[in-house]
Design a protein that fits this description.
alpha/beta; five-stranded parallel sheet; 5 strands; 43% helix; globular
Amino acid sequence: MKILVVDDVQMSLYQVEKAVRPFGEVTAHKDPLQALKEFKASAKAGQPFDLVFLDISMPTMDGLEFLLRLREAEQELGLADRRSRVVMVTSHSERDFVAKAIQKGAQGYLLKPIVPESLHAEIHRLFPEGVEGAA
């Protein structure tokens, strides 16, 4: 499984990256613009990301904008039938953004601080068919 983690806070990025490592190949970015660029390049190369963990609050582009651009890129690249599953990562104060993200195509959310067991449960919920290297 290919996993993309996007979070501007180094500690959060590290926590999610470490927790998802048993599930597959992980790419992590602090810069959402760079992450979106890599998402598109990977999709164009025929290796789209299966799962994206996306922080909601980032300075250069918030998670909702990133999600919209990600979905547009999938549409443009003909991946509408193989969309990445997106999990928003948020603090308690951002729940209204989570509702908007779910309406725009996110499949789930996790609250900070990240608890590995909750993250693993979310992955298993999103991939009931099983995941390669599942923890």
